[in-house]
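In the current project phase, we have settled on a layout for protein records. A sample record is reproduced below.
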Amino acid sequence: MRARAFLPLLVCSLLVACGQRDAGAESAAYAAAAPAADAPMAEAKLAEGGEQASRRYLAISHSLEVETPAEQVEPLWREVQQQALSMGADLISAELSRSDLQAPAASLSLRLPPAQVPALFALLAKGGELVNTRTDSEDKSAEVIDVEARLKNLSEARDRLRVLMNERGAKLADVLEVQKALTETQSQLDSWQEQRKLLAQQTEKVKIELRIHAPRSAIERSALAPLRDTWQQLGYQLAQSLAALLSFVVVVLPWMLLIVPAGLLIRRGWRKRRSAKM
């Protein structure tokens, strides 16, 4: 009876190690005690019915570039941000840049439910001209299947360890050992659950990378654009230097009007005193 009672403990201990990289003796023992512990996701799902085994988990992303008049860049950026949040989007980042040298530009990074993507495209087409688009797709099916299989195995291992914790008549050393294994199993389970949530974010919502800017001039689109930017930067730096010099003169000049006459008076008095001594 005692051997039977602690046989599940051996199984669970092997299950706890299912996430480690050491594949030698552990793989053989695991295969003997729990054949499905590290099975590929496709096989695990086929064993459950095969319906989800054929499902594909795709991480889709769109990179969009929209041109709109300079005075409409910020309003369109704010409108898209507000509408996307109302559609259930997750905002990753938002940036708006304005300067005297360049036209305003804005960017948005967010994750949007797939059903809301056409509405976002329609909003962008209404507010400006979509000048550049790029769509990327990455198949995450293997990762999702593997993570779900690990979650299933770890959940079963945790449940078995909990049963062992509640058995009566066990020695204190055995109870402590089971408790340690239970803690390690729960830690691994929490880690893989976070990984599954991350995969869900990537596969259940579409990532949108949006850039909004004013139409570029012919010079900005040509090979002379770097020279124009450098010339503008030089002019700006020269203006900054002149402004700094002017500020210095304005600050120092009142003091010079006091210091110079005072210095002349002191020098004159010192000469008179020196002449009197001679």
Summary: The chain has two domains: 1-215, 224-277.
